[in-house]
Design goal:
By secondary structure, the protein is an alpha/beta fold. It has two domains: 253 residues, 3-Layer(aba) Sandwich (Rossmann fold), CATH 3.40.50.300; 67 residues, Alpha-Beta Plaits, CATH 3.30.70. It contains 13 helices and 14 strands. The strands form three sheets. It has a six-stranded mixed beta sheet. The relative contact order is 0.16.
Length: 373
């Protein structure tokens, strides 16, 4: 399945990775993330095998294979232009597959597109609810588009509005809602036809920190209650770390890494990250930092800020202070932390995810069942 995955493929179990990430200490999962355990023998509800998408001579997605287990939250990361949007559009029946196949809950998206669409809910990055309709009105229209029977329609809407805490606003016009409330409405609307699989594209973009956490907690609660499988794309590394059971990184159309967040972090050389800011550095300063004992990587983050990965946190910290004193360079700030998913992303793609936010790619909703893709 993962023969085209480079650098990863460590085969570590969640427990092994968690011990590595916490220096051998066993930390309760509730303190690390919002993830729930997934049964080892759980079936795959998303299957992607050797999928390829070509536009003439250009290959946008190149022989990608992976599976997503029932009940899993699966993160898909990659810089803009890496192929992740194209990959999602193929899985959600929006564009045809050049070769290979994708199955959604056992339905081939090429041979059985209508059946596949009925099994999935798709929440695009852009807010698409009708501002002039009420909260309930948006829900009703979407339920009708998916042919939800009238009796079941009311029950589903009542239940979902209660789940996302919008019952008291059901008669309010959507344009009066805050951004966080609109996002909750979009999530509820995407579940009105009881899908088994949920695709979310950047679900918390533009939300304040409190609303982001509220959406995280709501998603995990809904997933557990409805036994959903979730595939999420995000530019927030803390979001991927807290929510996702496994993460796939796509770059240049290929799957370059796939594993649990802990195992991915364990593959990055240097177990400690030091963020340090200097002033009045000489031209060869970055090169000199690279040659310090134990240092595996130095990332220049501009404005005199460097991100240093090292295998010897305490030793490198001392060396940084000493080299600054000897070189008469001003050391402004210094912080020490563990390896993060930001470091994983840089390691596998050679660039920082926050540098890739120049262009946002939203994808539109899949056609209603019965319509041609």
């Amino acid at each position: 399945m993962n023969e085209n995955v480079n650098k990863s493929g460590t085969g570590k179990t969640n427990g092994d990775a968690a011990r590595m990430a916490t220096n051998g200490a066993i930390v309760p999962a509730s303190e690390l993330s919002l993830r729930s355990a997934i049964a080892v023998d759980a079936p795959n509800t998303i299957e992607v095998e050797h999928i390829v998408k070509k536009y003439g001579d250009f290959t946008a997605v190149n022989d990608v294979s992976f599976g997503v287990k029932e009940g899993e939250i699966f993160g898909l990361l990659g810089p803009n232009g890496a192929g992740k949007s194209t990959l999602i559009r193929m899985m959600t029946t929006l564009i045809p597959i050049t070769s290979g196949f994708a199955r959604i809950a056992g339905h081939d998206v090429t041979k059985e597109p209508d059946a596949a669409r009925r099994m999935m809910g798709v929440i695009p990055q852009a807010l698409t609810s009708d501002l002039d309709l009420t909260v309930e009105g948006n829900m009703v229209i979407y339920a009708k588009l998916y042919d939800v029977p009238a009796k079941r329609r009311k029950e589903a809407i009542d239940e979902l509005l209660e789940t996302v805490d919008l019952t008291k606003w059901r008669d309010a016009q959507t344009k009066t809602l805050s951004g966080g409330m609109r996002r909750r409405l979009e999530i509820a609307r995407g579940l009105v036809h009881s899908p088994k699989i949920f695709f979310l594209d950047e679900p918390t973009t533009g939300l304040d920190p409190v609303s982001r956490v509220a959406v995280w907690e709501m998603l995990t609660a809904i997933k557990a209650k409805r036994k959903l499988t979730v595939l999420i794309t995000t530019h927030y590394m803390d979001e991927a770390d807290r929510l996702c059971n496994r993460i796939a990184i796509v770059d240049h159309g290929k799957l370059v890494a796939l594993d649990t967040p802990e195992a991915l972090k364990a593959t990055v050389p240097g177990s400690t990250v030091i963020e340090v800011q200097f002033e009045n550095m000489p031209p060869d300063w970055e090169e000199r930092l690279q040659h310090l004992p134990g240092v595996t990587s130095v990332q220049n983050e501009s404005a005199g800020m460097y991100r240093v990965l090292t295998t010897n946190g305490s030793g490198t910290t001392t060396d940084l202070v000493e080299i600054a004193v000897v070189s008469k360079v001003t050391l402004k700030t210094l912080t020490v932390q563990n390896t993060t998913l930001d470091d994983v992303f840089v390691y596998y793609t050679g660039r920082q995810l926050r540098d890739e936010l120049v262009k946002a790619h939203a994808f539109v909703m899949p056609p209603r069942p019965g319509m041609n893709p």
